[in-house]
Amino acid sequence: MTKRRVKGEGSVYRRKDGRYLGEYTDDTGKRRFVSGKSKQDVAAKLRKALEDKDKGLSYNAKGLTLARYLDQWLESIHDKVAPGTYKPYEAISRLHLKPTLGSTKLEKVTAIHRCAQSRFH
Predict the structure, then answer these.
(1) pTM for this predicted structure
(2) Per residue in 56-96, pLDDT tens?
(3) CA angle 89-95-96, nearest 5°?
(4) Model confidence over 87-119: pLDDT tens digits?
(5) Is 79 in the same domain as 115?
(6) Bridge pairing between strands 20-25 and 11-14
(7) Does residue 10 have a pLDDT over 60?
């Protein structure tokens, strides 16, 4: 007999078309999905998504601007990277990204936006 999963662990199951689907609940209570061709692939994606959720990196872009996302990201990495790494990230964000793309909704950022800023990476 298999043992019961812990609440919030997510689940992996096979769809009728043969692909596998992983399901978990994000911080807002909304169900999120990851998919793949093999059960192991989906289980790995699901573990990664749950780790990101635990780190506070869950993807919830509804109404979130790029400037606000950058602020949250900088705050999340502040204690995890060296000061010599953090300072350029903060400067690029403050001087280049926020003035040009800061008011853009995160869900609306496209490859063209990324190409315009690629010289800063």
Answers:
(1) 0.50
(2) 665 666 678 889 889 988 988 888 899 999 999 999 999 99
(3) 85
(4) 999 999 999 999 988 898 877 777 665 555 555
(5) yes
(6) antiparallel
(7) yes
Positive or negative, the CA dihedral 103, 107, 108, 110 is positive
Domain presence at residue 2: no
SS3 118: helix
Are β-strands 11-14 and 31-36 bridged in parallel, bridged antiparallel, or unpaired? unpaired
> Which of 49, 65, 73, 56 minimizes the C-alpha distance to 108?
65
The domain in which residue 26 lies consists of 11-55
Residues 33-40 have a mean pLDDT of 89
Contact 10, 48 (CB under 8 A): no
Distant-in-sequence, close-in-space partners of 109: CB < 8 Å, separation ≥ 6: 66, 101
Q: Does residue 79 share a domain with residue 41?
A: no
DSSP state letters, 24-77: EE-TTS-EEEEEESSHHHHHHHHHHHHHHHHHT-----TT-BHHHHHHHHHHHH
CA atoms of 84 and 101, how far apart (whole Å): 25
